[in-house]
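ARCHIVE CARD
SHELF: 3
SLOT: left
DATA:
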Amino acid sequence: MLETASRYIRPLKSIRFIAGLSFCALALLAAACKSDYQGGSTRQIQPGNSKAARQVKTARVEETPFGETVTANGTLAAFDQSTAGVKVAGRLSSISVDLGSVVRRGQIIAQIEPNDYKLRVQQSEAALSQARARLGLSPDGTDDKVSAEQTGTVRQAKAQLDEARLNRERAVRLVEQGVVAKADFDATDAAFKVAQSRYQDALEEIRNRQALLAQRRSELALARQQLADTAVSAPLDGIVQLKRASVGEYLAAGAPVVDIVRMNPLRLRAEVSERDAGTVRFGQNVRVSVEGDSKVYIGQIKRLSPVITQQNRMLMVEADVQNDGNLRPGSFAKAEIVTNDARMAVTVPNNAIVTFAGIEKVIVVQNGKALEKPITTGRRSGDWTEIIAGVNVGDQVIVDPGNLQSGMAVEVVQ
């Protein structure tokens, strides 16, 4: 029985020993946790670990002349557009431009084979020399003036007329004296009249030759002009929009070679609603913006339609817009026509506005910390934006705030 009791006592001692060890371990863990917590608290209150204030620049919300505007949508078009074509028929021997080439007015851009037209010039020169020779002029001269009375044909007819006149006068006196019969006088009188007719024919022949000389001179000028027209030149300053012909192609007179557009200035064609049409005037400034370009371009109203389109009740206006090379004809454009320059507006710089999730806001400085303020914007210009609500004149807004958020410490620097 004593052996049985001892078997039960030994396990109980083991259990009490293990429980004692567990209690000691828990006590040590609690002490360690307490020590760590106190150390952490000590680190939090150490000075010099706080974040430094962020330096920012600010701009003052101001009331500036912003002007009343009328908004219109339109399209940019080339100021001028022309097709350079050949004036004479022939085979295209060369072309020196292609799509996008910049050309100047009068620049040679293509050439028709000129050999046929050189031969025509030589032929016309020979015909002109022949016409000059028939008038008694030197073949190579340039002065076509000639007196009909000085030509050999007219001088010969004039001599025959003078002789016939003297014979007739002599016959008249002889008839009066009764020496010559009346029949002989009639023959002499007829010869005089024939001489008059021949003289008149000689004058007409010389005038005809003079007219033929003028015709030959014109034909030579035309042949030379056709030879010059074998060179195709640019009709205006601009850029090649489309190449229409290739080397070796036979072109008829008037066939197109290239299309050229004038890029500066551009025409803005926009439609203004009937309600706003009365405020639009010639000479008003226009602020133009296009998709994909943050720059605002300045134009001026130059042309207004005299009528309002009946189908849509819109007034067509045209403005000339200066192009620095970034604008392209055919682009969709948004225009703001400034109808009143004297109107004042509350404005902030464009780089002070932050947009997130479709909400526009600015960040102001209040008690050394950043404070976000939602705003309602209106019109925009190149550097400024009109503020309809959200801030007041005199407030200081942070420019280029980046990722600055409300509550962050800031320091304003100049």
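SLOT: right
DATA:
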Amino acid sequence: MANVITPRSEDYARWYTDVVMQSQMADHSPVKGCMVIRPLGYALWEAMQRDLDARFKETGHQNAYFPLFIPESFLHREAKHVEGFSPETAVVTHAGGSKLEEPLVIRPTSETIIYAMFSKWIRSYRDLPLLYNQWANVVRWEMRTRLFLRTTEFLWQEGHTAHATEAEAEEEALKILEIYRRFAEEQMAIPVYSGIKTESEKFAGALRTYCIEGLMQDGKALQAGTSHNLGQNFSKVFDVKFQTKEGQWAHVWQTSWGVSTRLVGAIVMAHGDDNGLVLPPRLAPVQVVIVPIWKTDSERARISEAARLAAEELKGAFRVTADLREEFSPGWKFNEWELKGVPLRLEIGPRDVEKDQCMAVRRIDRRKTPVPRGALASRVAQLLEEIQADLLEKARAFLRENTRDVKDYESFKRGLDELGGFFRAHWCGSADCEQHIKQETKATIRCIPLNGNREEGKCLRCGARSTAWVYFARAY
């Protein structure tokens, strides 16, 4: 099966599409720029949903749902917001056979319609904080699309909160950023840099935007999540006010934050190899596949029964399947399950039955380990945790090796072309320098680290005084 996958070294973009398509995670739809998420891809997204949803609820957030359609006038109330999203919006002008009195925008994000509702629900300081999240689809009319990474319609969660003070809103935005960072590392096995976006890169209408940035195997950065302190920009526009304890009226402070099905693409690009997907055990829809191996009919019934019993023992504790199909050879099954990224394969052949064991094979490196039948569940649990840890350490090593300090602009440009990765460099804070670097190199400031970067230096481009360094990279 790997023969139909373009090698990463030959064409990384083609490799990515081949893996997504051949593993049956997603497919192109009849609507240009949209995708069909197939069961494997959707199961991975569901695993992400379950974990993130639990983390949100643990911190007091509640799920709700708001309409897909937004009155066009709502977007125009916040000038920066409409300016940021106008090129991407899809607008409904006719419905039910007649022209609408007011066009409806298909939601590109929900700040406007949610805050129109907040203005109805919030009256007193006792109503705060209001901590909402919704799981939904959005539409942004993209010109150049790629499965999971950038599509016209995609799935995401978007949190929206209202607070009495700026300090509370800032605490919320940073709390969510940390949730995203921990999820990326603990579940996805992808280490990230976290920090604040520059003014030119922040969310349209936000006071401040925070983000996490991962590094893909081709040396490009991927923005994996954002958390925004919106200040009072939207609350003033939509008149979201509350009566304070002192009896005065004040506008709320708000946040919004989200991650999307882009995270599915991140897992493909961060861990996959030339044989297909490599999925982290904590999120893999199938963690363990059991493949019986026989040569004769007399062996088949005995070994198939051993595989079935092993699967029964593991069910409940693990997401496991026994591949008992007789029309495919063991080798064919090995290739198929490797393509689909299953972290651990258990092989059971005649000798394994005689020794009362299984042979465990790790997807990450194909390393084999005999597992006594009597210790099957405990050993499988141990192996899956080892695989999860090894994936994260491998990704951490890759991030370390591909993060470089740079002080010379020409060296920076050569490094981008020849090596890729993150470049840690000083920046004077000038929007003009930032824009020139972007135009000349196609690299952007991915984030300004929140901690540990207060040091004197000279701007990478202009040589002016700098008090902090930033992370530059080319990005998706």
